[in-house]
Recover the amino acids of this structure.
């Protein structure tokens, strides 16, 4: 691709992951951030330990939120505007691509791939940094996604493009439970019906959409927890809504 790779960090396989936790989240990327700034690189790329996810650091050494990277990829890699994303994807995607057909699925790349086959979609992805390009493969491939990002980076100023993506504020919380998840979720559904909402989606947990905000309450698939995600245009609104929902969840868990 004609790229000059100025530094390859932690390139020696070591299952102990001595440099840092392998989860590609912002708090684990200080080494990459510093390397990008020290070498005056245009961007930094990080993968998870099996290479199916990718996250990006810009030339200033700042982490690019995955929701925004997903939005840019969605804009520049699909032709028909058919996109599949999970229910926990930011509304910034909808606001940024108002003409696209955006279909939401259960959380998990397998559900993204299944939906892309069903709708003959052009692109799918998750806020975790997982991206699916049906023209290449229905399996997420972080290395291929990185190549696509680099290719787009050579054509446009992605950092300027990201500034065009509407800003939303997200709050994520969770509560541990010992009770039956199904019964707890039934109680939660009954309780949230008191809210004024435009739409309720139960494809994966309970998502309620309001005027300029949404809430997702879903049981963890791997832990005895109920996870809550709240997003709103206003930061105070997001925090206030999260507090209300968490109170409901606490009551339903008891």
């Amino acid at each position: 691709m004609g790229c000059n790779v100025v530094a390859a960090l932690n390139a020696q396989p070591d299952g102990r992951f001595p440099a840092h936790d392998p989860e590609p989240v912002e708090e684990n990327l200080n080494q990459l951030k510093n390397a990008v700034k020290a070498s005056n690189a245009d961007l930094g790329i990080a993968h998870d330990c099996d290479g199916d996810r990718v996250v990006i650091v810009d030339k200033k050494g700042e982490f690019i939120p995955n929701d925004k990277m997903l939005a840019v990829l969605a804009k520049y890699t699909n032709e028909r505007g058919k996109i599949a994303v999970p229910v926990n994807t930011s509304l910034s995607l909808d606001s940024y691509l108002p003409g696209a057909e955006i279909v939401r699925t259960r959380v998990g790349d397998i559900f993204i791939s299944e939906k892309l086959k069903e709708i003959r979609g052009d692109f799918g992805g998750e806020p975790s940094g997982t991206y699916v390009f049906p023209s290449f493969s229905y399996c997420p491939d972080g290395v291929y996604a990185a190549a696509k990002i680099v290719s787009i980076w050579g054509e446009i100023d992605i950092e300027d493009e990201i500034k065009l993506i509407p800003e939303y504020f997200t709050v994520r919380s969770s509560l541990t439970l010992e009770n039956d998840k199904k019964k707890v979720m039934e109680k939660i559904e009954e309780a949230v019906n008191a809210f004024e909402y435009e739409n309720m989606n139960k494809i994966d947990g309970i998502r309620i959409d309001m005027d300029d905000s949404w809430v997702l309450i879903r049981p963890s698939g791997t832990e005895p927890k109920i996870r809550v995600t709240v997003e709103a245009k206003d930061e105070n609104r997001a925090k206030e809504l999260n507090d209300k929902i968490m109170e409901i969840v606490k009551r339903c868990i008891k």
Summary: Residues 102 and 235 are 25 Å apart (CA to CA).
